Amino acid sequence: MITPNQFKRGAKIEIDGEPYGIVEYLHIKCGRGGATVRTKMKSLRTGAVIERTFKSDEKIKEPDFEDKEMQYLYNDGTVFFFMDTESYEQIEIPAEFVGDDSDFMPDNIMVNVQVFNGQPIGITLPNFVELEITYTEPGLKGDTVTGGNKPATVNTGGTVNVPLFINIGDVIKIDTREQTYMERVSSAK
């Protein structure tokens, strides 16, 4: 059991036997009375988005997931294919259940697939991935580490804001939970 005060983006909860993922949340403290948490949640089975407000001291059940470590193989635009590396069983997960995580998911990466009542309903990427920059505006001479930011596209198709000194061909570390730049791993020569 968790309370709404422990909500974060991507957290999973169960309401009326249905698993949901937290898309957005906002803590609201009223002058009188208790605090509330306004959420926007996405059904992990149907993809439907609902909004709901919880009291901050309410107890909410966490869904009983089975996590399986699987290897991402490829996608055809509408379905993503994963393989269990022990049994070599392949499963398909619709693109809407993978969501924005696909922007930072290179081929052959190991991910955790959540299974709820025998049905795969979502994935969790490793906390950090290293990806190569395929496009960004060139940095100018004199750009510093503490300068500004610019958008950059990585080899998986995702876009992340990076410091001005990052160039095409650089490999960067990305925090997949927040989808943000962490550091440059290696620079293009």
TrEMBL record:
| Annotated keywords | Cytoplasm, Elongation factor, Protein biosynthesis
Task: Share an example GO biological-process annotation for this protein.
Answer: peptide biosynthetic process
GO CC term (a single one)? cytosol
Family of this protein: Belongs to the elongation factor P family.
What terms describe the molecular function in GO for this protein?
translation elongation factor activity
UniProt source species? Denitrovibrio acetiphilus (strain DSM 12809 / NBRC 114555 / N2460)
Task: Write down what this protein is called.
Answer: Elongation factor P
Annotated metabolic or biological route of this protein: Protein biosynthesis; polypeptide chain elongation
> Gene encoding this chain?
efp
Against InterPro entries, the record matches this protein to: Elong-fact-P_C, NA-bd_OB-fold, Rib_uL2_dom2, Transl_elong_fac_P/YeiP, Transl_elong_KOW-like, Transl_elong_P/YeiP_cen, Transl_elong_P/YeiP_CS, Transl_elongation_fac_P
The record, for CDD domains, names: S1_EF-P_repeat_1, S1_EF-P_repeat_2
